[in-house]
Amino acid sequence: MSDRDEASTYEAWYHTPRGAWIGDTEYALARRKLAAIPGETLLDVGCGTGWFTRRFAAGGLLATGLDPNPEWLAYARAHSGLGTYRVDGDARRLPFADNSFDCVMSIAALCFIPEERQAVAEIVRVARRRFAIGWLNRASLLYRQKHEQGAYRGARWHTVDEVRDFFSGLPVTNLSLSSAIFVPSGGSIAVIAERLLPSALPWGALLIAAGAPLHETHTHSPGT
């Protein structure tokens, strides 16, 4: 299957009942953790087909999606919708100056690159107000069901302690961890569980770390 076909298949999953519920639930958690204000700028690192980028743009943000895969970016541009735009780039060397975006997010994308800690540092560097980064949770039911199947093949799944360690030594404050998708089936039980279980529990399939950057003087410049 070509990258273009994979992009179409990936996007189509979000239009299935289960995919739509998972996407909506993950988006809602990321939106709460970012607490973004309409009109603010947002960078979506590892945007893929742009599904989350478009959702945030529909919520009134000036959203930019970044991904290293040209075929997936081509799909994102072709379906950009509300004037969102996308740039090619590497999460480990973001082509932006310090504090370039009000908010920066990434959903289950860093787990597919080897230098996750470097990518986290870059996200913190370019964020002006808030960041929210989502990882696949090794303590989740989804991990036991599908950690080496389909789109999850090759991904790294992390524990809460491992995610916290990514931020060790970085200039961040008010770091919090939340999770969503406790029962990944997407059925009625899953919907009820998501309503009843608080996001502070560390067992959801998506584990989001969110916080604020401390605005210090950095010596890094884009592309160096």
Core attributes:
7 strands; 224 residues; seven-stranded mixed beta sheet; Rossmann fold
Describe, in plain words, how this protein is organized in 3D.
The chain is an alpha/beta fold and 224 residues long. The protein has a single domain, classed as 3-Layer(aba) Sandwich (Rossmann fold). It has 8 helices and 7 strands. The chain has a 7-stranded mixed sheet, with helices on both faces. β2, α4 and β3 (85-88) form a beta-alpha-beta unit. α1 packs across α4 (70-78). The longest helix is centred in the N-terminal third of the chain and has 18 residues, at 17-34. The protein is globular, with a radius of gyration of 16 Å. The N and C termini lie far apart (35 Å). The model is unreliable at 217-224 (pLDDT under 50).
Low-confidence stretches: 217-224
Helix % is: 25-40%
Task: Provide the residue-averaged pLDDT.
Answer: 92
Shape annotation: globular
Put the structure in a nutshell.
It is built from eight helices and seven strands. The protein has 224 residues and is of the alpha/beta class.
How does the SSE layout of this entry go?
Layout: H1 3-13, H2 17-34, E1 41-45, H3 51-58, E2 62-67, H4 70-78, E3 85-88, E4 101-107, H5 116-126, E5 127-136, H6 141-146, H7 160-166, E6 172-180, H8 188-196, E7 206-213
Parallel strand pairs: 1-2, 1-4, 2-3, 4-5
Antiparallel strand pairs: 5-7, 6-7
Helix pairs in contact: 1-4
